[in-house]
Amino acid sequence: MEFLKTIILAAAQGVAEFLPVSSSGHLLVLGQWFGFDAEKNLTLNVVLHAGTLLAILVYYFNKILSILIYPRRRRLIGLVIAGSVPAAVVGFSLKLGDLDEKIFSSPWVAGVGFLFTGIMLITVFGKPWKKPDDEKSDAVVLEKMSFKQAVLIGCAQAFAILPGVSRSGSTISCGVLTKLRKADAAEFSFLLAIPAIGGAALLEFLEAVKNSGAICRGEISAMSIGFMVAAVTGYVSLAGLIKVLQKGRLGWFSLYLFAAAAITLAVECVKYF
């Protein structure tokens, strides 16, 4: 049963981390439904984050390498750092104020977050059944984006700390609204994800070390499977998202999110009766 829970959660992490449907919201809701206590499974959280981080590094390996090699692209390092500051400030503030446990334990927050993300996607990318707008002629390429754009996208990422609010959906939408090309908005979004996911994994790792206990062989096997499932599903979902984005069809995800919000909130309402 533990293996099944791990596979379900790893698949949810891998798919929802990159598709604009919120991995944190799905892990919270699935955790409630399948009896997964995140506070007692910090090590597994680290493993799942590491799996999705590997997916980004593999998918964008050549582009990350080009940033390190070519001087004209090294400016992106500063843009990524600037864009990472808002989420770091908000994340540490929530941690210091002990607000993270309250926020990340409420399916109500996740349900409302799903609804918000759905509205955002359909507003920015249009109704999915209609022909998407063409790329704007004044769209900015990634290498020429400003630090103001980077910080604004970083603020969108910080807001997406809330469960149910998609990190990829928020940052890509903000990138498009600030006149980045769609493909470049996606690339910057996932470059921002590297320190964001890495930072989250590091904090969880330090917390796990502080509360360390013996890990049995069965748990190691389950975590290994979880890592592989998260990495593979993450890579596939990331590749799929880029293809959908190229067609301008991110609005389709809003239909799923409206359904997820309705189901989540309905289940929570039923608990009161």
Mean model confidence by pLDDT: 83
Give a quick account of the main beta sheet: strands, pairing sense, barrel closure.
none
Shape: globular
Q: How would you classify the quaternary structure?
A: single chain
Termini Cα gap:
29 Å
Q: What is the succession of H and E elements?
A: HHHHHHHHHHHH
Number of helices: 12
Radius of gyration: 18 Å
SS elements, strand count: 0
- How much β-strand is present in the residues? under 5%
Uncertain regions: pLDDT < 50 for 5+ in a row? Answer: none
Q: How many domains make up the 3D coordinates?
A: 1
Helix coverage percent = over 70%
Computed structural class: mainly alpha
Short précis:
With 273 residues, the chain is mostly helical. 76% of the residues lie in helices and 0% in strands.
Keywords:
mainly alpha, 273 residues, globular, 12 helices
Structure in words:
It is a single chain. The protein has helices at 2-18, 23-34, 42-59, 61-69, 71-96, 100-103, 107-125, 147-159, 167-177, 182-210, 217-246, 252-270. With 273 residues, it is mostly helical. Helix 2 packs antiparallel against helix 7 and helix 4 (61-69) crosses helix 5 (71-96). The longest helix is centred in the last third of the chain and has 30 residues, at 217-246. It is globular, with a radius of gyration of 18 Å. The relative contact order is 0.21. The model has no long low-confidence stretch (mean pLDDT 83).
